[in-house]
Design goal:
19 helices; 6% strand; mainly alpha; two-stranded antiparallel sheet
């Protein structure tokens, strides 16, 4: 592990130096910093925790010079951000960094096609961007979510990493900005104000398409299979947590499957808005310093690279100043979370027991449920999913509030919005796997318990109402309940029905359909 160096010029001030080292120290353990043999001629010594690295280099930006570890690809603005925004432990999601790699690659190719960027420079940028896309440089993106609300430091983190990696590929000196400049070349025709929201949409659309929707479909399919397996098993229904008329397990599971089917359609619906990209809007939406064709061409190139139908946002002023598409998409995640919460709670109620609860379902016994009660098994997959749902509901509040805070030409809550959205997607998608493999697939019905509930439910009296009327049916149920007898015994005692009439009407399986 490597400890970050102090800044040039502050070493003479012990208190300030100590403060800077304390601020940068957390990063020493989060990232596997690379060694640059191109720069030093030899591998840098990997210091133990608490030691200073043996080599640094000087990088510069518009604020002046700053010392950067010799074996990293980031530059001055990233280093400043590490100092100024040492807030929490939440770093930019790798999915967003991948999206930035796609964006920078597309922009380089388009700028080349438009005659603004020489082919050799474009080739170097593309090679470095491809490594970002592949995740090979993930350890070079240490910046926190809690930074500038435009995401400028992260945009520059990407520019600097691509620039220095391209310089290294060209055999140049890292930090020299030759032959690839992070601003003039990598960020050509761009601003943080349009690249960050474009990357937000790319990352969001890719994750919803490639991770979330497939994961939810696996849960839907597993539940639908159980609905088919249990389609003829009659059980007692419950409303208000009280006994109600019968239905089949197939109908109950089928209801859950329908919730997820409709959630998938909602997720597909939100994708359309996410396909609109802000790239080409530059600083405020006017397209300043970008070619008139840049926006359309860049969106088309991103579509080619991702296989998704991205397009240029029709109004760049809206694209930079508000992010309603992310708010809308997060709303679909919240609806999905509501569905999973309902399904999970139903399952753990129906599987409660095993002897003193409802006990209609049995679920797989995956791990011990108690450190003190031997043999206890808990519905842990349902609990994990419900905790994920709670987190998604909270994230939705954050995304919605942040989305409402655009001022004039820019919303400056971009990082927190995409962080919460991608975190929600990841949590749900990951939870779906265990939900299917360690719970849904192993669900079984306790037929004896289910039959007992059906045969002893007072709400079967509903089948008698068309014959004897609501009031007499209610009296039959009340009598059976108070006297702890069966509905048949109560009906015969009250003289409302003969045994033959009762048996002809009282067929629970017929009560599960019109």
């Amino acid at each position: 592990m490597i400890a970050f160096p102090s800044f040039v010029g502050i070493a003479a001030h012990p208190d300030l130096l100590s403060a800077v080292q304390s601020a940068l120290q957390p990063h020493c353990y989060n990232f596997r910093l690379r060694s640059s043999s191109k720069l030093t001629g030899q591998k840098d010594k990997m210091a133990t925790p608490g030691e200073q690295p043996t080599r640094t280099r000087i990088e510069s930006d518009s604020m002046g010079q700053i010392e950067v570890p010799a074996n990293v690809y980031w530059g001055a603005q990233t280093q400043r951000s590490l100092l100024h925004f040492n807030v929490g432990r939440d770093t930019m999601p790798p999915e967003l960094i991948r999206a930035f790699g796609i964006l920078k690659k597309a922009c380089a190719l388009v700028n080349q096609d438009l005659g603004k960027l020489p082919a050799e420079k474009a080739k170097l940028i593309v090679r470095a961007a491809d490594e970002v896309i592949a995740g090979k440089l993930d350890d070079q993106f240490p910046l926190r979510i809690w930074q500038t609300g435009s995401g400028t430091q992260t945009n520059m983190n990407v520019n600097e990493v691509i620039s220095n990696r391209a310089i290294e590929l060209a055999g140049g000196e890292m930090g020299s900005k030759k032959p690839i400049h992070p601003n003039d070349d990598v960020n050509m025709s761009q601003s943080s104000n349009d690249t960050f929201p474009a990357a937000m949409h790319i990352a969001a659309a890719e994750r919803v398409t490639n991770a979330l929707i497939p994961a939810v479909k696996t849960v839907h399919d597993a539940i639908a299979a159980k609905a088919k397996e249990f389609k003829d098993v009659v059980k007692i229904g419950r409303t208000h947590l009280q006994d109600a008329v019968p239905l089949t397990f197939g109908q109950e599971f089928g209801g859950w499957a329908s919730l997820l089917e409709r959630d998938i359609k909602r997720l597909e619906q939100v994708l359309d808005g996410l396909y609109d990209l802000a790239i080409g809007g530059t600083a405020v939406g006017t397209g300043l310093n970008a070619h008139p064709e840049f926006a359309e061409r860049a969106a088309k190139k991103i579509a080619e690279l991702t296989g998704l139908p991205f397009r240029s946002h029709p109004n760049k002023f809206a694209a930079l100043s508000a992010h309603d598409e992310i708010v809308f998409a997060q709303g679909a995640l919240e609806t999905l979370a509501a569905s999973f919460m309902k399904i999970s709670n139903d399952i753990r109620w129906l599987a409660s027991g095993p002897r003193c609860g409802l006990g209609e379902l049995s679920i797989p016994e995956n791990e011990p449920g108690s450190s003190i009660m031997p043999g206890k098994v808990n519905p842990t997959q349902a609990e994990a999913m419900t905790m994920v749902c709670v987190q998604v509901h909270g994230a939705t509040a954050a995304v919605g509030f942040a989305g409402s805070q655009g001022n004039f030409e820019l919303n400056v809550f971009k990082p927190v919005m995409i962080y919460n959205f991608l975190h929600s997607v990841t949590l749900i998608a990951d939870a779906c796997h265990g939900y299917v493999e360690y719970m849904i697939k192993g669900i079984e019905v306790d037929r004896a318990k289910v039959d007992w509930y059906v045969n002893n439910s007072l709400m079967l009296v509903t089948a008698l109402a068309p014959k004897v009327g609501y009031d007499k049916a209610a009296k039959i149920a009340h009598t059976a309940h108070v006297e702890r007898t069966s509905l048949l015994e109560a009906a015969l005692k009250l003289g409302y029905l003969t045994r033959e009439e009762f048996n002809d009407l009282m067929k629970p399986e017929k009560m599960t359909r019109p």
